[in-house]
Write a structure and sequence with these properties.
- The chain contains nine helices and ten strands.
- The strands form two sheets. The chain has a seven-stranded antiparallel sheet with strand order 3-4-5-9-8-7-6. It has a three-stranded antiparallel sheet with strand order 1-2-10.
- The protein has a single domain, classed as Mog1/PsbP, alpha/beta/alpha sandwich (Protein Transport Mog1p, Chain A).
- The protein is an alpha+beta fold.
- The N terminus is likely disordered.
């Protein structure tokens, strides 16, 4: 009995694979993390949404989020206030023709916060903003930026965000991946963050 239990325990996967084969995108998180389903994310995003937000929500092709805690909800994933535990959120969204024509690296950088304006001092929507690192990402099917920054919401604690934002080579869609939590949590989870971020792969639609 003990041997059987040991063999069963050893066979448990060490990672959860989140993927959309049709869109050619996937990432992994540690085994034991908890899924925040696509329907829950969409439902929260559409609560009281204006027409522009609803239009963008309808362009989402796939999204999925995971958290270390069962208590994490779609609200924790989408709101500016930091989740208290590490979370990972991926989204693939089609672009309108206008967005496709206008999209640049600045546009990718500014998907959740106006990073460019914050850096130049033209925006004060958050406090203590710091750009910690940024690098270009180029794959066979998309290219863009990995940006790491920290900030403090007007009501909340300091948080750190590792953001990957890629534009498909055909300029018809964007791939977006966030790993974030409070800065204290983020710094204590550097190894996990690096592994999750490195797992994010975009091969493009088949």
């Amino acid at each position: 009995m003990l041997l059987l239990f040991a063999l069963t325990a050893c066979s448990q996967p060490s990672k959860i694979y989140s993927k959309n084969q049709q869109l050619g995108v996937y990432f992994t998180v540690p085994s034991g993390w908890h899924l925040i389903p696509e329907e829950e994310i969409r439902g929260y995003e559409l609560e009281g949404a204006d027409a522009a937000t609803k239009t963008k929500a309808d362009l989402v092709l796939w999204q999925e989020a995971y958290s270390e805690s069962k208590g994490t909800s779609a609200k924790n994933i989408l709101q500016l206030e930091a989740p208290k535990v590490l979370t990972a959120f991926a989204r693939v969204r089609a672009l309108t023709m206008e967005e496709s024509n206008a999209m640049s690296y600045n546009g990718l950088r500014n998907l959740i916060l106006p990073v460019t304006d914050l850096l130049s001092g033209q925006s004060k929507i958050v406090d203590e903003f710091q750009l910690l690192d940024e690098s270009e990402v180029v794959s066979d099917s998309a290219r863009g930026l990995q940006t790491i920054f920290s900030f403090t919401p007007k009501s909340g604690v300091n948080e750190t965000v590792h953001q990957t934002a890629l534009l498909a080579n055909d300029r018809l869609s964007i791939y977006f991946f966030l790993v974030r939590c409070t800065t204290e949590c983020f710094n204590a989870s550097e190894e996990s963050v690096a592994e999750i971020v490195e797992s994010f792969t975009v091969k493009g639609s088949r």
